[in-house]
Design a protein that fits this description.
Blueprint lengths: L1 E10 L2 E11 L4 E5 L6 H8 L7 E6 L2 E2 L8 E4 L11 H11 L4 H4 L3 H7 L15 H13 L5 E5 L7 H16 L3 E5 L3 H7 L2 E6 L2 E7 H7 L4 E5 L4 H5 L4 E6 L4 E6 L4 H9 L7 E5 L3 H10 L4
Parallel strand pairs: 3-8, 3-9, 6-7, 7-8
Antiparallel strand pairs: 1-2, 1-4, 4-5, 9-10, 11-13, 11-14, 12-13
Length: about 300
């Protein structure tokens, strides 16, 4: 279990990370979200001891990281970097050996990992001969092949097409199933919503949201409503507490509500003559929550 407590880091007058707290259990995935410059990468670098915090602690299973523990960490930085002159095989073996693995342990696994991530290229090919997408998949293999207990992925989906993004998602889920603790940053809220157990949102270095995906969404109220009923758009727009009505098609409308209680009134009106095909009242999506929080002036 990874525990981050009261973490702060300043660069001169800039408070890059300001009192950040979270826990990631064994076999859990946590999403770290925020705008560019919110403190995500700085948080990762402090966890990895690439930067020294001004205050706070980072612990694994209740203890500070030991030098030996870093052999059990997988890290994919936002700035991708492979040696273009190395072969695929040599690059994978090189990173695995840096993590304390022996060549004899990793070499037999390479073909299966290349096949799993559908890398177009042979193990003896040089990195520079691969497309950018396939180079990225090789770097992901370098991050995961030694089966780390803690996995830190900084924008892992950046630049991946939907097919390759699915391959990465599958790789992350496999790591979760074997008990790894995983944290990744992403600007794609669909990735976070589909994969994560917990989520942290940073804004200007401060932690502004933390909890399970369900808890966070529900905390904003069920203010989104999909409705198919005899009520017209004009009728819906006259109801107090309805902020916006959009037509999805000829019979279905999407409504934004001031608060969840307005939904009860709409339900009563919509069902006054009996059955209606659709009434689905939902909390905002993570995408909508992200835009709302990012756009707020918290200064």
């Amino acid at each position: 279990m990874l525990e981050v407590r009261d973490l702060s880091k300043s660069f001169g007058s800039l408070k890059a990370v300001d009192d950040v707290n979270f826990t990631i259990g064994q076999g859990q995935i946590m999403g770290l979200i925020g705008q560019n410059g919110s403190g995500k990468t700085t948080t990762f670098r402090i966890i990895l001891k690439l930067l020294t915090q001004n205050s706070g602690t980072v612990r694994w299973k209740g203890k500070p990281f030991s030098k030996e523990f870093f052999n059990h960490v997988g890290y994919l930085p936002e700035e991708r970097g492979l040696n273009q002159k190395m072969t695929v095989e040599h690059q994978i073996l090189y990173f695995a050996q840096l993590r304390g693995k022996k060549k004899a342990e990793i070499e037999p696994l390479i073909d299966d990992w290349l096949d799993e991530f559908k890398v177009i290229g042979a193990r003896k090919d040089k990195i520079k001969s691969l497309s950018k997408g396939n180079q990225q998949k090789v770097q992901l293999i370098c991050t995961l092949i030694h089966e780390p207990d803690l996995i830190i992925l900084d924008e892992p989906f950046s630049g991946l097409d939907p097919v390759n993004a699915e391959l990465l998602e599958a790789g992350i889920r496999r790591a979760k199933e074997r008990g790894a603790s995983i944290i990744f940053s992403s600007h794609n809220m669909n990735n976070v919503e589909e994969l994560c157990d917990n989520m942290v949102m940073l804004k200007n270095g401060r932690q502004v949201l933390y909890g399970t995906i369900h808890e966070i969404r529900e905390s904003f109220g069920r203010t989104r409503l999909f409705l198919e009923s005899p009520l017209s758009k004009a009728e819906l727009e006259t109801i107090e507490g309805v902020k916006q009505v959009k037509a999805v098609n000829d019979a279905t409308y999407y409504l934004e509500l001031e608060n969840a209680e307005v939904g009860r009134q709409i339900f009563d009106l919509a069902t006054r003559d009996g059955y209606i095909p659709t009434f689905s009242q939902q909390p905002p999506t993570l995408e909508e929550i992200f835009k709302q929080i990012a756009g707020e002036n918290n200064e």
